[in-house]
């Protein structure tokens, strides 16, 4: 393991093992297991700032992965990738008396390396075993927007810089494998896997406008317009603010929330298209890219009378219309999570997920399908630290039967300072 990787893992472990100290008042506040922040409330200063409209967050995510076994490779390569983000949410009603108005600034820094770069048998994998790696390991302006509600909250307008998946086809990111973590639609949107320019899952941002209309308390519809600008993807352009794109991405979505026996479900159906032209697999210019998605997440049981505990199921299905433009033509993801499996661990969680990525035979005639699976146990030490050890399995690496399979083990850290 590289020195920087070991250091970060040791530091994270030291935080867990240190626990509260009765000798120093600051240490007690800082490592309070009931606090939402590792560094505490700064003697009440964080709450005081939030009451005035300034809510600061500092987060850290780390993904460590190592090869357990591989059909086509030998050795036990490992890699560590991470991300730091610092953000501030501004309640402009409190700061400037702007009713129903808020703003957000979020800056991220990614670092480390991917296991695919260390282990040849995983090179060319459609997915990645570390979701936090990618889009250039550098500083980026990930969010910079203002949002306001009109007509008693019926209409919600958001403008500034942000990616599509913050609002469209959104899904929780609890797993470490990219193909199971978060929204899948943007990962494979008619462009080379994980480097595509059509749809931005983050940390890359683009100039954008999103309008959402609440039809009822349970139902809303939304539409967005996002600048397509390849400069935003460059490692040196993390803070690019120019408006020199070659077109726009237009997503449309309807979202329905339901309560079934007091258990929450969220259902999304959407469509996107574009206005720019791009070279396809035949080296011809192609336009009017499009795709559709259906995402659903439903808690199906409670546990021992507690609705916060129990089994939830999630499904993601998506397909892309122009099969000449990307290596993946469709995907299917199914996830099962169980929160609060033990009476002594009410906030822990067990998760199992599987994704099928169907290769586009027009892009490569040899493509079949790649399968990614993961199981994790989320140890919720405190509101500010969750550790998720996991086991992953990848079959038909790169959607090619000849590439075989691999078993991976990993640990994912989520920390809020």
From TrEMBL:
It holds the Pfam family OprB. Residues 1-27 form the signal peptide. The keyword Signal applies. GO terms for cellular component: membrane. One of its GO terms (biological process) is carbohydrate transport. Keywords: Signal. It comes from the Bacteria. One of its GO terms (molecular function) is porin activity. Belongs to the OprB family. This is Carbohydrate porin.
